[in-house]
Amino acid sequence: MGRPDPILLMNAALVLNIIGFANYAAVLPDLLAGTGFSETAAGVAGGAFFLAYAIGSPIFAALTDSRPPRQLYALGCGLGIAGGLLFPLLAQDYAALVVARALSGLGMAGIYMPGLRLLIETQPPARQSRAASLYVSTLTLGLSASFAVSGTLQWGFGWPAAFLGAAAAALVAMLLVLATMPAPRLAASPGGLLGRLRAVARARGVWLVLLAVAGNSWEGMAFRIWWVALLGFAVARPGAEAQLGWNLAIATAFSGLLAMPLSAWVARRAEAGRRHRVIAFAAGGSVLAGAVLAGALEGPFLLIFVLSVAYVCMIFSDAGSLPPSLLARVTPAERGAALALLAASANTAACLAIIACGMVLEGMGGAGSILAWQVTIGVIAAGSAVTALAMLVLDRCDRA
Fold it and tell me: Cα–Cα 20 to 30 A to 336, which of 66, 186, 267, 372?
């Protein structure tokens, strides 16, 4: 019997690890109700995940140039397991929540970029771009799985079970990768890490791609973290009595089934034509979808729900196209350094966006105010506006 397909294996492991990515967002309304934490405090705790992710990702990604990515992946899984067990199994105070989210963020840093590098190095050159696009597109499916699993555990056993379930999923992912994935032979890396980072930074158009990645991550991660809370606001308004019994985390879970094919389609279009123009149009569509959602917040719950699902699909439509755009501009020996810069850009933006949204939401009147949510959605959608502008400029530069 032949070895299982590495693309299938790594995507399955990614979905398992992402259970601990959005479990916090999935149970956020109940967690806030049960702990009394403020919206700003919740934003800081959510941001701690991405701050740790932003700090850890460049380190882990750069290490893939000199260390076996499979071993780095196992370390990342171990950190994710620790984050899932610390809060709430060992402690349920605010400090424990912040530390637990930071550990989970480091865990994601340890599996996401090393996992992408491990996958790329197991593929022939002709399939590497497609493999990278599928891996990144799987993020949307993993996020949906996180909401579905976390919501189900919350419904059956209470919100603390969502954190323990994430630890169990990370353990399964670690065993899957260690047992089935080969150890690829890496290309020799020229010079030290700083030299490789400088070489990547000097490559034509890299900073515009990194700006586009930051904009995409700003929007995508901020909306994912605050999405269930937004729906909680909508379902609590008069006229939504029929939906009061919904498990909102589970209700949002199926969006990945729609978002992933759309992301894969956009990635194929980008590969076949003017990559950066395709990404710019997708990002522009996301800005439009966000504006429509913000304008509809006074409408019925079902309309808000459908529009929010459409918005999520548009947010992630260009996500799978951005990493290949960056990797195409560097040599194989510089991929780890390129992924390090990509990770730093994406996760710094995500951290700032989540905290900014919490502050804006609280400052504009709190989670019960329509105006506060409209302004927050506008802040979120600004990320894709930046992505669209960066890609249009890059398209013009490349054709000059």
Answer: 267
